[in-house]
Design goal:
The chain has eight helices and ten strands. With 339 residues, it is α/β, with parallel strands linked by helices.
Length: 339
């Protein structure tokens, strides 16, 4: 890297796995292709073992993909699957992806581009189109947990049939998507089960009794972690439906603390890879540093890479030579944790 030295805070036990996986071509069907025109109403009526390779799979049978937009993403919550060409190599494992967007939208370059990159490294991938504003704050977490359960089910079947090499599942999140992902690492049932009268019938989901909704490993890129100190106020306001006046009220500060992961994680949090830039003006680097410190405190394997320069939201950083090494570092780290 020459004079532009990379600042690396490497905090994990064991070394990085060497090398990259062989290239593979990605098979993708356009997002516009709906799986179900008339999905059943109740979860147990859905064929949970149906194949959705390369398609958009609805997360909730009661929410039709082709209905009116449910929020700013313009569709019902869904999973879009990306599977590598498996002629020569069996997929190493499955990684789900949560794009960022400040809980207002989804950044396209933090979804499909990441999935196709992972396909080229030998991993199957799924992009989660989770609910954003103006829906209530527990909805995105219900969506991500449902996506993880569906992924667990699919991987269990594929692993039994020898169609995937590992039963482990990774979760990648960028920016606000990193906040969603980190929430799943906490397994926050107190948030997800918020309503007694649940329109999505979360309590009826038969997968909850069969699979663990916490990911095995996590990758967080310039993530929103804190919603109090060094917070990204745009994400705070969008997630919690607050305005400039209400955001500092005592009751809302207490709610913000519940969503600040650096003070709430415990020993069950998954091994975590993080990267950030030191001069990120949107989401301060202290977010990643604070989570890494919390992981160390609880004995959780963590690896943090802090680069000296770069803007927020770089994705794969293909146009930023000083940052372009981070996907390689991630792949090496995944290779040592998903096997």
């Amino acid at each position: 890297m020459g004079k532009r030295r990379q600042f690396i805070w490497q905090l994990m036990t064991g070394g990085l796995a060497a090398g990259l996986a062989p290239n593979a071509l990605s098979k993708v069907v356009p997002m516009s292709k709906s799986v179900s025109q008339n999905p059943p109403h109740r979860i147990e009526e859905l064929d949970l073992l149906a194949e959705y390779a390369g398609e958009q799979q609805p997360l909730w049978p009661s929410l039709a993909l082709d209905g009116p937009g449910h929020d700013n993403i313009g569709t019902a919550p869904s999973l879009v699957w990306y599977w590598p060409d498996t002629k020569d190599k069996t997929p190493k494992g499955l990684i789900l992806i949560c794009p960022g967007g400040g809980y207002l939208r989804h950044a396209p370059h933090e979804g499909k581009d990441i999935a196709q990159f992972l396909n080229n490294q030998g991993y199957a991938a799924g992009v989660v189109h989770y609910t954003v504003k103006p829906q209530q704050y527990f909805r995105p977490f219900q969506d991500i947990r449902r996506a993880l359960l569906l992924a667990r089910q699919r991987v269990a079947k594929a692993f039994t049939e020898g169609k995937i090499l590992s039963h482990k599942i990774g979760l990648i999140g960028f920016s606000a998507g990193g906040h969603v992902a980190a929430t799943m690492g906490r397994n926050p049932s107190f948030l997800i089960n918020k309503l007694a009268a649940d329109p999505l019938q979360v309590q009826d989901d038969p997968l909850l009794s069969l699979y663990n909704p916490v990911p095995d490993v996590m990758v967080l890129g310039y993530p929103v972690i804190s919603m109090t100190n060094f917070a990204h106020l745009g994400s705070v306001k969008s997630l919690l439906s607050l305005d400039d006046k209400s955001v500092e009220l005592p009751d809302n500060l207490s709610l913000r603390e519940q969503f600040s992961h650096q003070i709430n994680i415990g020993p069950g949090f998954p091994p975590t890879f993080l990267f950030h830039t030191a001069n990120d003006k949107a989401v301060p680097v202290q977010n990643s540093i604070a989570l890494s410190e919390a992981c160390i405190k609880h004995g959780i394997q963590t690896e943090l890479h802090v680069f000296p320069d770069g803007k927020h939201g770089v994705g794969l950083a293909q146009n930023f030579p000083a940052l372009a090494i981070w996907p390689t570092l991630m792949v090496s780290w995944l290779g040592s944790h998903i096997k």
